[in-house]
Write a structure and sequence with these properties.
Length: 194
């Protein structure tokens, strides 16, 4: 029973706390009713009549759109490989150095003198001596020789940066380098070794 002193107090208590018997605010009650209406409308729209895409379908549409944009960008980069030149920006070369240390040094050594992979500091290049050849090797890899393709792993700009960094290593003299692996030296022209 309610306390005669306070008609809003309920007759039960827990740990000395008694419950008030008061109504919820009207705005809260209407908001509660609106959430129920929204839930019914949502269920009918998405699950019963299937008029809208569910989250998985929306995700697939967004991924397909992103894949199209990505494939166009990758094709554009790949088609321009032959005309690309080494970058000389210090920030880009520093990024290329980081990528080289992380991904390339395990096979080519940190000084590029060659381990499992070939020496990148001499003028004897197995798959072509030009900067474009180097880009293509990094981009496509050489599966027969154990060189993985980095086009699915690195961004095109990262590939250009690491190739530019490797280009700066040409002609350096690391200690105990791997011997040359190709008998024909790379052509030395002003465009290649400036």
């Amino acid at each position: 029973m309610n306390d005669p002193k306070d008609p809003l107090l309920m007759d039960h208590e827990a740990d000395g706390i008694r419950e008030l018997d008061n109504n919820l605010p009207r705005w809260w009650v209407w908001l509660f009713y609106l959430t129920i209406l929204f839930a019914v409308a949502y269920t009918l729209y998405y699950h019963v009549f299937m008029m809208g895409n569910l989250q998985a379908a929306e995700y697939k549409l967004e991924m397909d759109a992103g894949d199209k944009i990505k494939s166009v960008a990758l094709q554009k980069f790949e088609s321009g490989l032959a005309s690309m030149q080494p970058l000389k920006d210090e920030v880009v070369l520093a990024q290329g150095l980081q990528t080289f240390k992380t991904l390339c040094a395990p096979c080519h050594r940190e000084d590029a003198g060659g381990l499992v992979g070939p020496n990148l500091t001499d003028d004897y290049w197995i798959h072509g001596p030009t900067f474009a050849d180097n880009l293509k090797v990094i981009w496509n890899g050489v599966p027969d020789k154990g060189m993985v393709s980095w086009k699915g792993v690195l961004q095109p700009m990262d590939i250009h940066a690491v190739a530019s960094y490797i280009h700066t290593l040409r002609g350096t003299k690391p200690p105990n380098p791997k011997p040359p692996e190709n008998l024909a030296p790379a052509p030395t022209g002003p465009s290649e070794f400036e």
